[in-house]
Amino acid sequence: MDRAETRVAILEDGRAAECYIERRGQRSVVGHVWKGRVENVLAGMEAAFIEIGLEKNGFLHVDEVVALGVPKRKRQIADLLKRGDEVLVQATKDPMGTKGVRLTMQLSLAGRFVVYVPYGDGVGVSKRLPDDERTRLRAICGALPLESGGLIVRTAAAGASAREIARDLAYLKKLWETLQERGKLATAPTLLYSEADISLRVIRDLLNSDVKEVLVDDRAQFERVTGFLRRTSPEMADRVRHWDGDTPLFEQYGVERAIRNTVERRVPLPSGGYLVIDDTEAMTVIDVNSGRNVGKGGSRLEDTITKTNLEAATEVVRQLRLRDIGGIIIIDFIDMDDERNRKAVKAALDTALAGDRTRTYVVDISPLGLVEMTRQNISDGPREIMSEVCPTCAGVGIILSDETHAIAVERELRQSLAGRSEAATVVVHPRVADVILSEDGARLAALEADIGCPIRVERDGNVAPGSVRVKGGSGSGAAAERPAAAGSAPSPTRSSASRRRVSSRSS
Ligand SMILES: [Zn+2]
After folding, report:
1. Same-domain check for residues 454 and 474
2. Quick one: 119 and 151 in the same domain?
């Protein structure tokens, strides 16, 4: 992976449904395994901070500690871990915002068909598979040589033969042995195992018989992907093609635009309505608007509203997946009078969410037309990866107006020039100068009368809008630049990635 960026898109019915971006130097660490050292134990939080060699210590909750023989209800972090202990830990969630990596000691090693859980037990089969297929896979796994640990059978195992699954498990057990050996020799903190990069991860985790075709435009990446499949699922290797079309791959399939649109606030709906997606510190708020597409009064109005809401239900889920939005989400549908229509919109939302692999929890639609839901994402979405907080407004979305700055500058001048009679030259930002010199000079004249001295206004783009410099004041010769007290721009501490998310990963 030599390029600055690797992107993977999943298309459904010809449209971009999900998109993963990985940039050089900021890869996801979910799945990585470290030998870490307990840095401190917080009894009150029932958690420990683990040094793993990243910028911030990882967070390990008591529920994620492996303690064989101790019943889960009776566990207390202070009994299980102490400062300086060395532990094998795996990342379940990337560092996001101010939070460090979330860790677990319950390691899981993902293969193409199964996930091996060394400290687990039993066999679990993906609930996304049909019943008869689950029975078949359960029988196959029951016969496997699984001396210790547990197994999770993934959706991709649909149709896989006993031999393929056995080969997958053998590989993972070997990997576990290697990991343990490396762990014994290593000094904490050390990275013992790094999860595959995004392209192999998507192929391993998501490629199943429903996928018609995989297109790869990078030759080396294409070789890696087909190589991996020839080893694990040879019959799937034929579905991978090298793209060498004249049009860039992501242009050809409209993915480029879909990705670009993930940073837009407004998302149009087919019949003229639109969504407004607002990301706040605590939650994401999605507002449904009818636009101009409103019929006149009565039942036609209710019909139009319901139609817009139904379109919105589908588009909201599409955007949740495409942007990989996590945490608390509030959807504000347009008010509907009819209970049946509310139910229809809720049903449309549920249907759309059934196609979302990421776990969601939806509370019923409230009388005000609000739907509360949570969605568990584990990494930053394309929006967070592609954007940074606006340095001018620090993500607030508003800045003080020029009028506000001008008033503050005038207030400052009344103070600093008080009692002066000789003419003063003041330097301000050009936009602030425009305001002070507006009203054909009447505004400045009033200020001069107030203070009692003539004022000459100069423009300088290097002076902050909220500041003023008085030239050669009081014979000192020094140009004092003082911030006027209109409040300066908020400091950019808020990260675009800092919104709250709900933890845990899906397999
Ligand atoms: Zn801004």
Report:
1. yes
2. yes
CA of 389 from ligand 1 middle (Å) equals: 8
Mean pLDDT of the chain: 88
Alpha helices in 216-276 (DSSP H): 219-232, 249-252, 255-261
Both 207 and 124 in one domain: the answer is no
Spatial separation of the C-alpha atoms in residues 487 and 23, rounded to whole Å: 37
Q: How far is the CA of 392 from the centre of ligand 1 (A)?
A: 5
Mean pLDDT of 148-167: 90
Task: Give the integer Cα–Cα distance in Å for 304 and 114.
Answer: 47
Which residue type, as a one-letter code, is found at position 428? V
pLDDT at 237 over 70: yes
Residue for token digits 């979330």?
Answer: 102
One domain for residues 80 and 159: yes
Domain range for 48: 33-193
Cα→Cα distances 148→116, 121, 173, 192, Å: 10, 7, 10, 21
pLDDT digits (tens, 9 = 90+) for 38-75: 999 999 999 999 999 998 999 999 999 998 777 777 88
d(CA 77, CA 293): 58
CA–CA distance, 323 with 288 (Å, rounded to integer): 17
Q: What is the pLDDT of residues 2-47, one digit of tens each?
A: 678 999 999 999 999 999 999 988 888 999 999 999 999 999 999 9
Complete DSSP assignment for 146-191: --SSEEEE-GGGTT--HHHHHHHHHHHHHHHHHHHHHHHHPPSSEE
CATH number of the domain where residue 417 is located: 3.40.1260.20
- Compare 106 and 503 and report the one with higher pLDDT: 106
- Spacing, Cα 55 to ligand 1 middle (Å): 28
From the CA of 351, how far away is ligand 1's center (Å)? 37
Q: Same domain for 189 and 200? A: no
Placement of tokens 């197994």 in the chain: 151
Three-state secondary-structure class, residue 303 = helix
Supply the pTM of this predicted model.
0.76
- What is the distance in A from the centroid of ligand 1 to the CA of 241? 42
Calculate how far, in angstroms, residue 385's C-alpha sits from the geometric centre of ligand 1. 18
Residue 393 CA to ligand 1 centre (angstroms): 4
Rounded CA separation 50/87 (Å): 9
Higher pLDDT, 476 or 162: 162
CB atoms within 10 A of CB 418: 11
Residue 442 CA to residue 405 CA, distance in Å, equals 18
Q: Helix crossing, 442-451 with 402-416: angle to 10°?
A: 30
Number of domains the chain contains:
4
Distance 391 CA to ligand 1 centre (A): 7
